[in-house]
Amino acid sequence: ASAANNTPTLLLARDEAVSLDINTRHRNPKYLGDLPLPHRLQSTTCLEQALAHLQGSAQPQRLIILGVPVMAMRSTCETWLPLLQASNLANTPVVWTCKGFEQNSGQLPHEIVYSVFGNQIPNTGVLSGPSFAKEVTRNLPVALTVASHNEITVQNTTAALHANNTRIYASNDVIGVEVGGALKNVMAIACGISDGLELGANARAALITRGLAEITRLGIALGGQAATFSGLTGLGDLVLTATGDLSRNRQVGLALGQGQSLDSILAAGMTAEGVRCARDALNRATALNIDMPITKAVCDVLFNAIPPLQAVSRLLAREAKAEWPAE
Ligand SMILES: NC(=O)C1=CN([C@@H]2O[C@H](COP(=O)(O)OP(=O)(O)OC[C@H]3O[C@@H](n4cnc5c(N)ncnc54)[C@H](OP(=O)(O)O)[C@@H]3O)[C@@H](O)[C@H]2O)C=CC1
Ligand SMILES: O=C(CO)COP(=O)(O)O
């Protein structure tokens, strides 16, 4: 999106073949099929070259976008901290697209970043919202939220991305944005399971709505703002991922509902953040005494060998209750 917006953009890859394909054929077949990429998007695998690119970027658009799975965030931040400091780039805004809770620590992305960067890299934020990479690559309309406590992070993210078909909205609710992004992946697995079992459109709508209640409950308990969950990074991303077949989390659920095993579904190495973070999300909820029945049902199917139909029966057998407040 930044390259489509004429922002000079360099993609740091770790796979030489990916870099070469981007620079010579303007394609990224490993992730994006045969979709053409903007010619002004360049790639490198060399950290020094990435730092030099940042040093040469105009200050209003200078920005690092961290787009790795949550499990790679900590090591990536640890690599970058001394490099940014040594290159006089410690004030460069860093935003991440990562959606999930870190496995075992249960930390949200900002907790990982803050624990590594402390106040040594002061300008940080999260960039999130309904945005399938393949649609962004086709430069189709997309609306995203940048949440940060620093004005410069919001300004530079907006300057780099907001134009043409990309709209950037600002927020100061880092926690709410991250909880929505993490848990919509778990709900997408639930909706995929339901659709794989052919339980119908009514069931899917119920899961999305009660899933949002569940996300909101945990999000508020963790310090998020209620309004965030009806915004782009809450309801918006939940609807996209729970209903859009480009979603890898939804695909995992569909295959589970159709009887495939989790191991065979993930054998090709697909990133499905909901699988990685469902258990840690449930642990954080349990510690706060928050009820998360859909997340629990997804964990049962993923990790406790409960057949999908049995997990659905357990959900439906719960006692009748008031719809709202969502306790
Ligand atoms: N794809 C999408 O449509 C969207 C994804 N997101 C979120 O963004 C984050 C990244 O997702 P996505 O881009 O799809 O992820 P991918 O699995 O496609 O990986 C993205 C990049 O991270 C690199 N990477 C993977 N593992 C490691 C590691 N252990 N150490 C260093 N680098 C690593 C990959 O390198 P290599 O190729 O060498 O493995 C690749 O360059 C996720 O949290 C996801 O939920 C957010 C919005 C949309
Ligand atoms: O987060 C996404 C879209 O906003 C991508 O979802 P998946 O990781 O399920 O493909």
From TrEMBL:
Gene: gpsA
EC number: 1.1.1.94
PANTHER family found in the cross-reference section: GLYCEROL-3-PHOSPHATE DEHYDROGENASE, GLYCEROL-3-PHOSPHATE DEHYDROGENASE [NAD(+)] 2, CHLOROPLASTIC
Recorded catalytic activity of this chain's protein: sn-glycerol 3-phosphate + NADP(+) = dihydroxyacetone phosphate + NADPH + H(+); sn-glycerol 3-phosphate + NAD(+) = dihydroxyacetone phosphate + NADH + H(+)
Catalytic machinery residues: 184 (proton acceptor)
Pathways per UniProt: Membrane lipid metabolism; glycerophospholipid metabolism
NCBIfam families: PRK00094.1-2, PRK00094.1-4
Ranges for domain Glycerol-3-phosphate dehydrogenase NAD-dependent N-terminal: 1-151
InterPro entries given in the database record: 6-PGluconate_DH-like_C_sf, 6PGD_dom2, G3P_DH_NAD-dep, G3P_DH_NAD-dep_C, G3P_DH_NAD-dep_N, NAD(P)-bd_dom_sf
Chief place where the protein resides: cytoplasm
UniProt name for this protein: Glycerol-3-phosphate dehydrogenase [NAD(P)+]
Annotated source species: Advenella mandrilli
Keyword Ion transport in annotation: no
